[in-house]
Fold these 3 entries.
Entry 1:
Amino acid sequence: MPVYTYRGTNRAGTAVTGERTATSKAELQNVLRREQINASKVSEKGKEFAIPTFGTGVKAKELAIFTRQFSVMIDAGLPLVQCLEILAGQQENKTFQKMLNGVRGSVEGGTTLSAAMKQYDKVFDPLYYNMVEAGETGGILDTILQRLSTYIEKNVKLKRAVQSAMIYPAAVFGIAGLVIILLLWKVVPIFVTLFNGLGAELPLPTRIVIGLSRFVGSIYGLFIVVFLIGCGVALKLWYGTPQGRMVIDTIILKIPLIGMLLRKIGVARFTRTLGTLISSGVPILEGLDITARTSGNAVIERAINQTRKAVEAGRSLVDPLKETDVFPGMVTQMIGVGEQTGAMDAMLQKIADFYEDEVDAAVKDLLTALEPLMIVFLGIVVGGIVISMYLPLFSLIGQLAGGGH
């Protein structure tokens, strides 16, 4: 039996590490979860330094389409193994096809569908296989799969909102940075040669730009690039630790405009996930645990875990949520109404719908606010470099015109 090393935090929030024997990584994660240890990393001993894989090889859109087709087939009365065989045969993604064939083989061997999917937890996350398990237990697998496909589609929409808000400005500023470096590295030296030949007197802005050009073209510029890359790698490694993730996520949520947008995305994801789980028959405590681990933000994850502990101690859901100061008052009030009326799942879905619309509006407002700022930034920086290079020429032309007169 393989030995696994793990790292995470216990119920009190203290960092814990250790080694355990288990038949699989998924089994160890379940054991740790029962012991109320939130594992941030689990790896087989001796393979801790294996070459990392980037992504799962399966897109969320592909998973949503598979889930939707699967639900239709189950609803039509096709046997489970036949559904998996047909869907695997139609799958163009070879990685996903291999996983589906593995799931089919496990089901044919007598394993439940949820347990078979748990073996591929990089694609079928805890929310997915727990909902499938609830569907199998309640005999409503087709309905559960429909809810899952809707949830994944909504989640893809949220991710696109984040990409629209982050990638476009980052791409613009990145391209602007490359243009500025190219100007300083290749274009400015040509002007410097010209100025030296003419013996022109250089104004202060021109001298500053020439100094920057010499710095970029020197060995020190390379050191700065290496230093910045090193800082980025170190920041990413620190973000992989519980403490680093908490600090960085806390800072991100306090950034003007961006922080408010990410908070709305977090609320939408929390309510959509918990509402989907509760409506599928997953117990509230297990639902909160899964929601915390799929929240995507350490601050929101901590707030949900604190709420889970309070609910486990016998308290209602709404009061602990208020005490976290993470969720807006409207959210906690509507959840309180849902608790009192017994329509918690429906209320959570309505909150999610509302906040997803809020996210769309916030993304549009953010891009509207950033576009003029980016134009002004590019105009000042790039235009400033170009003008500073022409200032000595203007001065020379003025002197020649004066001399001719």
Entry 2:
Amino acid sequence: MKSNKIDLTFFDTVHDRKNTGSIKYDTLPSGRRYNDIIPMWIADMDFKVPIEVENALLSVSEHGIFGYTNTDDEYDAVLGDWYLQRMNWQTQPEWNIKTPGVVFAIAAAINAFSNIGDSILICQPVYYPFANVVTANKRNLVASQLQLSGGKYEIDFDDLEKKITDNSVKVFLLCSPHNPVGRVWTKEELLEIGRICLKHNVLIVSDEIHSDFIYKGSVHIPIASLSDELAEQTITCTAPSKTFNLAGLQAANIFAKNPVLREKLQKACTKTGYSNLNTMAIVAAKAAYKYGEPWLNTLLEYLQNNISLLHNSLAGSKISLIHPEGTYLMWLDCRALNLTDRELKNFFINEAGLWLHNGSTFGAGGSGFMRMNIACPKSILKEALSRLDKALKERSYL
């Protein structure tokens, strides 16, 4: 995984993304009055991909033929090296089912391992497609609410187990690292999740799409890496999309060690009519995992600086930052503003000129919070924080 050295200033460049079909920049929130809004809601970054990825895509484009394409041994090798070196997780190529995305894989898993009316468990507040895909597939949504204590979210394991037994839960959707609260679960927490799920024969579907965004003091551990038993009862969902800003290319790698689970999941994917990754997704993913490590390491340093900037800016205000252990999505506690969720949304959009993601979207425990994407050049973040500071002062919140 060698690459050209990346300087921090690489991420300072502001790229104009308007009129590119970008969901982030070419859509506007409802009820908007502010003309020049800064979008900080959806989870993609405002940074260019590693140059090696760009060059690999250009090379394929210049070739000019875009027939059916499959992954090769090199793809498997660089992917395996990535997880072994960065997470100490030994995977095998045959475990991997390629899908267009993690949410697609979760939906396929729900259909493969449960029936209509069965219960699926999540921990809220959590990435909202979890709930959406459960209810859309006519399953019973069961939620165990995360507990905020001393500025840190924790799992209520007693409640988690009770929800499993009371509802005969078939599948637990784990978000690791957790979006939106920024937790990176410890080994002890993951082992307790595993103990409960193994005890009650609950399949774990672990969304680990943010696993490369881990900050100092935390370590991401794939839950499937903790024991052979857990590996046999876990489906691990990964993707280069968040790590390398490749979401639009639609590629994910879904690992299932258990051959019985893997066959069932593959059949569920096949039923949708899906077959192979697209050509550009394969080329980009392979180049990213092969050459992108220096780029990512520098990006992590840049994001850490952005987090410090955000933390310092909010000091003394009525908005507090929940300390992020992972992801580039910041969870802001705005409850001290004493606004309804509707009023809070209006305040950020029409008074501060910032489009954040409403915390209520993420389910139980999300009311009064906002999710903020800080994966942007420092100059944009500074402008956003200046606007927020001004809006808070005008309301006498500072």
Entry 3:
Amino acid sequence: METLPPLKDIISKYKLSAKKSLGQNFLFDLNLTSKIARYAGNLEQSDVLEIGPGPGGLTRSLLNEGARKVVAIEKDTRCIAALEEIKTLFPGKLEIVQGDALSTDLRQYLTQPVQIIANLPYNIGTELLVRWLNSTTWPSFWQSMTLMFQKEVANRIVASPGSKAYGRLSVIAQWRCNTKIAFNIPATSFTPSPKVESTVVHFEALKEPRFPAEVNKLEFVVSKAFNQRRKMLRRALKGHFKNVEEGLLAAGVVPTKRAENVTIQEFCLMAQILVRA
């Protein structure tokens, strides 16, 4: 690690100005990237998937913390040469995949157990998370995730019923995982500085979801309920399911409830009982 030039020199050398179109915000502070890597736990027996490594700040820390292997997928071709410099110092430990994380099957590069650790690009972070959580096969290919989001998104992931932040992400994430806020990272730590604070969230995959439900049915019920979160369930779900009020009562859910007050268990019961129109 000591033989690598500072990240700011790497940025200058390869002219890596962050692109807003790619959701890039580079984290230069290696103390913070090391903190993220350490929070994920012991990496020595795991492959690590990193999305959007950019100039490789977090990549350095993951390798320095002893990751068995890091698979780094980067869409920005400008960053590949910078990552190659890191690769030379960790022979056989870093695999660089140039491509789009949304359209690449990354499992082919990984050997279980797998941890996902990343400063996710802002513009695709939520979409990637939903894909990983909504896998039709469970347990998924990953055991844990340590991911950075905008603070508002992080708060939604860990929110409890009855709070304004509680929503679709809360239900899907907590149905299949133990979720926990790790720590916040101020905007000033990034280049360029985003307008919002960032938060690292840790996900520990459960062997089985907390309550029985088919993921596609649960996702449909939850999305329709929260699309009109201010309305009572019987109104929000009308037109999407047959005999809505009777179905809700059969699930033990009061039809006048609003989505933000429905527990994960209740959503799972609704997914089992309600019949799509």
